[in-house]
Amino acid sequence: MDWVERVTGVRRWSRGGERAPHKPLLLLYALGHFQRCGDAPMFYGEVEEHLAGLLREFGPPRKTSPAYPFHYLTSDGLWEVRTVDGGGSPGPQVGVLRAQAARGRLSGELTAALRREPRLLPQLCRAILDVNFEPSLHDDICTAAGIDLESAEAAGAVAPRRRDRAFREQIMVAYEYRCAFCGYDGWLNGTAVGLDAAHVRWWAFDGPDDVTNGICLCALHHKLFDKGALGITDDRQVTVSARFVGRGPAAREQVHALAGRPVSSPQTAFPTVDGEHIAWHAREVFRSPARAA
């Protein structure tokens, strides 16, 4: 059985490119739990707060409940839920899941496969991350989900996926190796350092690997852009989320001061970022409202 295909093919609610990574986040949390605790059950009442935190930090900027993936993931054959009386999942209602001491675990078939093949766990984690999130968020998600991916990959000798080098080089040339938000352009021994090629619309959500969907950002602003602390307006100005808190001078100068600043354009030989990709990021990633310029 192709477990990578199974976990990347879980049925996700989708409408007009909206992000709904609820099931993938629960799967990652369950894989981290398996790495630490084997097939011990996860009681909803005990993991609810952790799952809610994952959804708040890495899900879309909309309110949601961890009860939904806890129940609905059972339909994909990867997750099982039992209540205190031995019945199946009672549904996606928070109160009912708590009252009936609902507990979930990875399916017996998947658990057996993970025990037989040590390299499967990191393969599944990488696959889930790759098809749902931008690479700048992978380490943070693993930490929050309790996954020690480095140790798992070392044990299974799994090579991590690498970013398409052609996309990076095209974006670097288009923006002349300068951060489009702050102008940072550092080099060391003839090599640009601290600069990334950032997707505006995430690759996992049909974002193409071309200049119309890419922008050169320094490492700091890339991370903040992918977390939704920074965004871009239709008229190509930087937006700063009012939810971002930074009281020191560094945060004020490197983040708050960006509000309303024009986003640098690529060289005239290259197209600017497509407005549809900007709108997707504003809707699916940026943590509104925006600070006043």
TrEMBL record:
One Gene Ontology MF term: endonuclease activity
Record keyword Hydrolase present: yes
Pfam families in alphabetical order: DNA-SBD_ScoMcrA, HNH_2
Keywords in alphabetical order: Endonuclease, Hydrolase, Nuclease
UniProt cross-references to InterPro entries, sorted A to Z: DNA-SBD_ScoMcrA, HNH_nuc, PT_DNA_restrict
HNH nuclease domain segment(s): 179-232
Ranges annotated as spanning the membrane: none
Record-annotated ScoMcrA-like DNA sulfur-binding domain positions: 3-148
Protein name: Putative restriction endonuclease
Native organism taxonomy: Bacteria, Bacillati, Actinomycetota, Actinomycetes, Streptosporangiales
